[in-house]
Specification:
The protein contains six helices and four strands. By secondary structure, it is mainly alpha-helical. It has a two-stranded parallel sheet. It has a two-stranded parallel sheet with strand order 3-4.
Length: 120
């Protein structure tokens, strides 16, 4: 992921991404996989990243597309919202965006929606 960020530092993310990342980091911290120092470093890095990325806001279009995606693909609500945000961010040209995710279910849905998938 670091290599991808270095090769293309412009990030377009769904507005809840910061909270989702914080949730994952907190879970690692609570489970003892991150000590205090590691957690501080990870949250500091998240702060730096979140100050540099561009966010897709929650709009009626995102909600409408997410509802369609839930009926079309086997996605959870948060994944449908992320994918809907990417589709809105593509300005009706899904192949113009490359999505970065480690979630295989989201990868499959994104491919079927026409988005390019980043290979890590």
């Amino acid at each position: 992921m670091s290599r991808l960020l270095e090769s293309d530092p412009v990030q377009l993310v769904w507005w809840a991404t910061e909270v989702e990342c914080a949730s994952a980091l907190a879970r690692l911290e609570h489970d003892g996989q991150l000590d205090d120092s590691g957690a501080r470093e990870a949250f500091d890095r998240l702060n730096v990243l979140s100050n540099s990325w561009h966010e897709i806001q929650a709009t009626e279009a995102v909600r409408r597309i997410a509802r369609r995606l839930l009926r079309t693909h086997r996605l959870r609500a948060a994944d449908a919202l992320q994918l809907a945000g990417a589709l809105v961010g593509s300005d009706d040209a899904p192949s113009s965006l490359e999505i970065v995710t480690l979630d295989e279910r989201l990868v499959g849905a994104a491919e079927r929606e026409g988005l390019r998938i980043s290979t890590t």
